[in-house]
């Protein structure tokens, strides 16, 4: 109890905007696993077409950079907390709209994916900026460690509870034995969580970015490296979200299995990540990143060689650890590079947030199209078995790019000069 009190006091010692952002993300963390896991399961249940899950991911990925650009202009008129809240609420409403479709086809899945991409665009564009201006380099490991801890704990509880709820509806005859009704109840829960998170974020008193140009075509060479890292991350991003549900539904069984397997390894992952975030130094980020990449490759390799229920379980288990490790290392690197290059080029920080999302989208487009083409013209089994390992090996190249970024002389010098307080925002300036 004494140690828990120390951890609570340490949390309270952090700046108020950082604490409010963490609390907002903690609540929304309990909605995201339901959205990510069970929308894919619902698509498979309604359409019996695994490739439609990747169509959904591609449409979602297309909506994100579009919204990033819209967000850049809307920030000139609306508070950032309001746009952040809008993204969370749209995600819940979009899930509800999907449940109204009796039959899912290519057009319907694409439309729902595009709307979900709009919601994620508002969410991620503003989340990155809020994290950038609510933290500093020496507390970002703690921030992302605690945030990832929240999301990991949510990934333990929500898939298990939701999966059991859906499975019990069928096996025990709840609501007439209709699984669709169970999805409707989960949708209502997601909407309530998004509304609660939206209320909390308005208590953070966040400042908008400066009103300045954010569209550029040429950048400093350090940012070019960061864009390469973003593209490599994008290649695997769609697979990381969609692959577990596709493999489990195809090789293991039902939604209950998705929840149970996803939750099994998450408890250890949550504890490990909090300790890493609390104790790890900025110098450890490349090692943490490499560990996440290695786990992804190992899980994909086991799935390729076995391609059965056990192989799917091992892959999902590896991914439970790999995904948060990658995020824990990646996001502090991204924010540090944004601060470094924005200071050097005298540009609006949101310009780099938008540019980064374009890099992510280029990689995501390649990854999703690869899966869809293999699934359509060869077979779904080949896509889940061989395309997955190909993507894992491509993303493994990220370790060399990440090391080049960290070892960049200008990046190292800027990190040493990082101020002890968050960078103050300047007064808004007019467009040139």
TrEMBL record:
Keyword Nucleus appears in the UniProt entry: no
Keywords recorded for this protein, A-Z: Membrane, Transmembrane, Transmembrane helix
Organism annotation: Mucilaginibacter limnophilus
Chain segments annotated as transmembrane: 21-44, 50-71, 83-101, 107-130, 142-167, 182-201, 222-247, 259-276, 288-307, 313-337, 358-378, 384-406
Keyword ATP-binding in annotation: no
Single Gene Ontology MF annotation: transmembrane transporter activity
Record protein name field: MFS transporter
Superkingdom field: Bacteria
């Amino acid at each position: 109890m004494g140690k828990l009190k120390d951890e609570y006091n340490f949390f309270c010692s952090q700046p108020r905007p950082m604490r409010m952002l963490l609390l907002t993300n903690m609540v929304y963390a309990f909605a995201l696993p339901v959205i990510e896991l069970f929308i894919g399961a619902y698509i498979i249940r309604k359409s019996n077409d695994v490739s439609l899950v990747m169509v959904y991911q591609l449409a979602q990925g297309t909506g994100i950079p579009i919204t990033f650009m819209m967000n850049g202009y809307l920030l000139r008129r609306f508070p950032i907390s309001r746009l952040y809240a809008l993204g969370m609420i749209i995600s819940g409403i979009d899930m509800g709209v999907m449940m109204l479709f009796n039959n899912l086809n290519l057009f319907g899945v694409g439309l729902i994916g595009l709307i979900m991409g709009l919601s994620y665009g508002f969410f991620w564009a503003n989340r990155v900026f809020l994290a950038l201006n609510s933290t500093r380099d020496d507390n970002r490991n703690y921030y992302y460690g605690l945030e990832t801890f929240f999301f990991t704990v949510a990934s333990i509880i929500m898939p298990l509870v939701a999966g059991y709820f859906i499975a019990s509806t069928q096996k025990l005859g709840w609501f007439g034995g209709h699984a669709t009704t169970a999805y409707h109840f989960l949708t209502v829960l997601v909407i309530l969580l998004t509304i609660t998170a939206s209320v909390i974020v308005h208590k953070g008193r966040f400042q908008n970015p400066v009103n300045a140009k954010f569209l550029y075509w040429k950048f400093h060479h350090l940012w070019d490296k960061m864009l390469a890292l973003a593209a490599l991350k994008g290649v695997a991003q769609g697979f990381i979200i969609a692959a577990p549900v596709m493999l489990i539904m195809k090789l293991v069984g039902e939604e209950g299995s998705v929840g149970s397997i996803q939750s099994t390894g998450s408890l250890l992952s949550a504890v490990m990540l909090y300790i890493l975030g609390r104790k790890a130094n900025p110098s450890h980020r490349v090692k943490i990143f490499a560990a996440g990449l290695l786990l992804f490759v190992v899980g994909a390799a086991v799935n390729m060689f076995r391609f059965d229920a056990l192989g799917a379980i091992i892959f999902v288990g590896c991914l439970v650890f790999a995904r948060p490790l990658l995020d824990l290392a990646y996001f502090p690197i991204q924010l540090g590079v944004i601060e470094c290059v924005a200071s050097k080029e005298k540009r609006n920080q949101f310009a780099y947030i938008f540019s980064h999302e374009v890099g992510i989208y280029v990689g995501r487009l390649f990854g999703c199209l690869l899966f869809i083409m293999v699934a359509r013209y060869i077979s779904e089994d080949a896509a889940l078995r061989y395309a997955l390992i190909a993507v894992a090996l491509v993303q493994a190249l990220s370790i060399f790019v990440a090391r080049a970024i960290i070892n960049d002389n200008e990046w190292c010098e800027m990190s040493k000069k990082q101020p002890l307080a968050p960078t103050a925002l300047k007064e808004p300036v007019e467009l040139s």
